[in-house]
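Title: Comparing notes on inverse folding

I've been comparing how different people in this forum approach sequence design from structure. To keep things fair, I'm posting one structure and asking everyone to reply with a full sequence. Here's the target:
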């Protein structure tokens, strides 16, 4: 349960590394909470339309804005774990190709031991050095 809370505790920490478990649990938590808030928005604000006629979702929007910096920081730390600069997170701005590259990199195993961004996250398979458990 702690894995999806860590990115909120380290929301301004763009240094260091985050293992796959931390990143994907946070991502799953973000998706589930966003979906629940979207349903709640539709139930509580059924007729909240903006000037273009699109449905406003105030609760989902507040959560998304509040999670923006943690999203960026955990993505940067995840890229650091794979040995890449956090600036590669800007690939998110390139539709399809950038998204696929980031998806592949976020799914890769982190570098074992020390790399240019610090030691492997404690508790990760790379930290333990146990290649058989990966």
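Reply #1:
Here's my take.
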């Amino acid at each position: 349960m702690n894995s999806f809370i860590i990115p909120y505790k380290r929301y301004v920490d763009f240094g260091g590394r985050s293992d796959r478990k931390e990143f994907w649990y946070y991502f799953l938590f973000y998706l589930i909470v966003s979906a629940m808030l979207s349903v709640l928005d539709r139930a509580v604000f059924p007729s909240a339309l903006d000037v273009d006629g699109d449905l406003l979702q105030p609760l989902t929007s507040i959560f998304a804005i509040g999670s923006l910096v943690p999203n960026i920081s955990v993505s940067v730390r995840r890229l650091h774990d794979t040995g890449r600069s956090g600036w590669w997170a800007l690939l998110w701005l390139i539709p399809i190709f950038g998204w696929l590259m980031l998806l592949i990199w976020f799914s890769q195993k982190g570098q074992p031991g020390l790399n240019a961004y610090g030691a492997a996250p404690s508790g990760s398979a790379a930290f333990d050095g146990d290649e058989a458990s990966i």
